[in-house]
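Input record (one chain):
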Amino acid sequence: LEDLSIELFYEIFIHFQFHEIYNSFSNLNSRFTAIINHMPLMSVYLGLNTISITLTEFYHSYLWQSNICERLISLCVSDEFAIGNGLWLSKHLSTFINLRHLSLIDIKRSSFESLLSSLSPINSLIIFSLSFSDNHRATCTFAGIPDGAYYDRIFYLFPSLRICRLLFRRDIQYTVDQQAVSSLGSTFLPVQNSLFNLRILTIYCSPSFLLHLFEYLPQLEQLNCRRARLRSSEEHPLNHSTQE
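The corresponding structure, as predicted from the sequence alone:
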């Protein structure tokens, strides 16, 4: 072990979650302590079903330390099994100045909006993902919002994005004459900030908002667009599957 290079250890460590590495090697000897204290934090998963309350508390207290937060590169945060992760993130995300990949799973709407309102632009972030573990949660969390409600703020906060996945849904209902309308009766909120580096975009949206986006994102190389799930009135229940 003493003859192996530090770079080789880093290659090995990327296959483990950080707390596994920390608990196994941080107190092994002085050399490993130094390696752990200087390695980039590649994959931190906070709040998934394999993370206990004890581990969640460990990450909450460990990640925002001054000598740690600037080394965090990739972070996945879920509110599915741990209440309060989204709120914790909204308070500390701005300290992760070198973060390149941020993934949010089952984030609460209040935490997400608090996150967007409290941040200053993060130029290091190149991958941003917002997703949900099931369709019902995705629809209920952001029920009633018009298309584009958060896009302009996201584009402003993460100007260097290359990959963006925004998998929240609006609640759209069919009227008697089969015209799809949003629950707020509006079309969409326009986007005014462009992302010149964005190459891959995955979204749920209406056709009108999609056409609007083309004006601001002409450089896209890959677009995965799904129409919002349509549900009929109570008198005429119909199931409309998601369409590409």
